[in-house]
Write a structure and sequence with these properties.
Blueprint: E1 10-16, H1 21-31, E2 38-43, H2 50-56, E3 60-63, H3 72-86, E4 92-97, E5 100-102, H4 106-116, E6 120-129, H5 136-144, E7 150-152, E8 159-162, H6 163-168, H7 180-190, E9 194-205, H8 212-233, H9 242-265, H10 276-288, H11 295-304, H12 306-322
Parallel strand pairs: 1-2, 1-4, 2-3, 6-9
Antiparallel strand pairs: 4-8, 5-9, 6-8, 7-9
Helix pairs in contact: 7-8, 8-9, 8-12, 9-12, 10-11
Length: 332
């Protein structure tokens, strides 16, 4: 603790289920930092001995009650509660997914930054995919995580937070099956806090996304999150995820339905309107070709992804109308 402020009390909260060797790497990276007083692992029904392994390392383990519907948000809240109980005077908490490894030096840089910027509640860095070469889908994840450096509107699942700021806004919204981090950031910003993205390596993530079906499910989950986020915070001035939701409806459902009706009721030549899709791909490609690797694939999947996103949107609103809670949309 001699390289950071002496009043820093830091815990790491990792969440996971059946992550196997990835969890071992995750917990080892947290324990090796030299800055962390407590490591909490929140297990959601693993059958691979994850909880026992974590206990063997000296981590605090929370075994979630799986009779209650699981969400990552709920797991993080329970991990945070355990961290507060285990570490008196907790000031900072680093959340990390169990399939991620904390990069050496990240915690030091993040804690120092927060010490210098009292207006910032949450700080994140560069999350990278461990094996982007294994599939186009892993590469797309790696590109997605390369967010702009500086003042940000939101963070992802790997983030260092001030404990008092998280506590003041009531933690994560436990009912959300996805998109809980940006939703938390909406409330943090509304309370006057700032979110910051550092130009610093933070975590290595192992998506293991090798099949089209996995990518489809992940995109559908994103669409669901867009719909729920817009329902919660879509009113001005926030307009949280309104644009993303509208885009999914237009490109994923609206245009195909319009063209189908026009072709059936007006003229078969209306199908030519579907050329708007390759034109959109071309437009996006030209915009990112100098800054994004695999720009052609990136543009193609951005446009194609509107379809599963629209499916996710529809799933949310159907559940909402029926008063039902959605099950998790998982891709692993």
């Amino acid at each position: 603790m001699n390289t950071v402020a002496g009043n820093v009390r830091l815990a790491v909260v990792a969440i996971g289920r059946n992550e196997g060797d990835r969890l071992k790497v995750c917990l080892a990276s947290a324990l090796a930092s030299g800055l962390v007083q407590t490591v909490v692992y929140v297990d959601s029904g693993s059958t691979d001995g994850s909880a026992e392994f974590a206990r063997g390392l000296g981590c605090k383990v929370v075994d979630l009650d799986m009779s209650i519907p699981f969400t990552a948000a709920r797991a993080r809240n329970e991990g945070f509660a355990q961290a507060r109980e285990s570490l008196s005077g907790l000031t900072h908490v680093q959340f990390v997914d169990g399939d991620c490894e904390l990069v050496a030096g990240w915690l030091q840089a993040a804690v120092v930054f927060l010490g210098q910027h009292p207006e910032v509640a949450a700080v994140c860095g560069r999350r990278r995919e461990r094996n982007p070469q294994h599939s186009i889908y892993n590469q797309l994840c790696d590109i997605e995580w390369n967010t702009p450096v500086g003042l940000a509107r939101s963070c992802g699942g790997d983030v260092l937070l001030r404990a008092d700021a998280l506590l003041a806004v009531g933690g994560y919204q436990a009912s959300l099956i996805a998109g809980e981090e940006p939703e938390l950031c909406v409330r943090l910003r509304a309370a006057g806090w700032r979110i910051w993205r550092l130009d610093h390596e933070m975590t290595l993530h192992d998506a293991t996304m090798l099949r089209f079906g996995q990518w489809w499910s992940r995109s559908k989950r994103a669409g669901y999150a867009f719909a729920e986020g817009a329902a919660l915070h879509g009113a001005p001035p926030e307009r949280h995820w309104v644009r993303e939701s509208r885009s999914a409806w237009i490109w994923g459902i609206g245009i195909p339905v319009f063209v189908s009706v026009a072709a059936a009721c007006v003229t078969p030549w209306a199908v030519a309107l579907l050329l708007v899709y390759p034109l959109q791909v071309l437009r996006l490609y030209l915009r990112v070709r100098h800054s994004v690797p695999i720009a052609g694939w990136y543009a193609t999947f951005l446009v194609l992804g509107k379809v599963p996103e629209a499916v996710g949107q529809f799933k949310y609103w159907l559940n909402h109308a029926r008063g039902r809670r959605s099950e998790l949309i998982e891709y692993k």
